[in-house]
Amino acid sequence: MKKQWLDKIQACRLQGEAVALVTDLSTGQASLIYSQATEGESGLASSILEAVRKRLRNDQSGLEESENGTEFFVQIFSSPLRLILIGAVHIAQALAPLARMTGYKVYIVDPRRAFNTDARFPGIETSHDWPDEGVALLKPDRRTAIVTLTHDPKLDDPALQQALKSEAFYIGALGSRKTHAVRLERLISQGASHETIQRIHGPVGLKIGAITPAEIAIAILAEITATLRGIVP
What are phi and psi of 11, to 5 degrees? Predict the structure, then answer.
């Protein structure tokens, strides 16, 4: 790999941006494909660009073939997926290990030391910072999902305000429809725009009839996955 490509790929990973290195196997010429831009040594047909960007969304390297039979190897480079959970609650205890199994680096942010303990979250990185401060320190990027779980506006609202300032690909908030509607009114009164609050998935999770903490965790991770893969708007 040429150093110029390596440097640009590393810069993208540090910024949380996925990038694809596309190599023409017949000539060895290469191009970098971003979500909204391209650069490189060879022009790529629109059909190949579309296929590459689909692979970007799905984190899936592999071969693509153009209409004239030219083969391209697509190598995806992405920063690690991260999940920030606000609230060391029962649902977080179920969701954290489930998310780890699917490749997420998980963080628990909750200033309540009685709940946020290593014993309740073994192997998970925890923070006792106030939620907005904890989220800000983690610097959410386009590979980060954030979910608030406490039901306490004093904890959830600051975290959501900070999340909305970030490029997190998913923001979710636990609570009923009524609770969520009131929450949105509060956020607007605190300065959030009507457009911005549409980023919040609430009530959080896909509608699968979930009742138990484990079922709710499955519903949340399913919605996060669907959003990551471009299935849920």
Answer: -65, -40
Between the alpha carbon of residue 194 and those of residues 81, 159, 191, 197, 198, the distances in Å are 28, 18, 10, 6, 7
Contact 182, 157 (CB under 8 A): no
Contact partners, residue 126, CB within 8 Å, separation at least 6: 88, 107, 108, 109, 110, 116, 117, 118
**Which of 64, 98, 88 is closest to 214 using CA atoms?**
98
Tokens of 190: 């605190």
Question: Do residues 72 and 24 make contact, with C-beta atoms less than 8 angstroms apart?
Answer: yes
Long-range contacts of 96-105 (CB under 8 A, 24+ apart): 96/121, 96/124, 98/217, 98/218, 98/221, 99/221, 99/224, 100/124, 102/221, 102/225, 104/80, 104/145, 105/80, 105/81
d(CA 14, CA 4): 16
pLDDT in tens, 119-178: 999 999 999 999 999 999 999 988 899 999 999 999 999 999 999 999 999 999 999 999
| Tally of CA atoms within 13 A in the half-sphere of 206 that contains its CB | 14
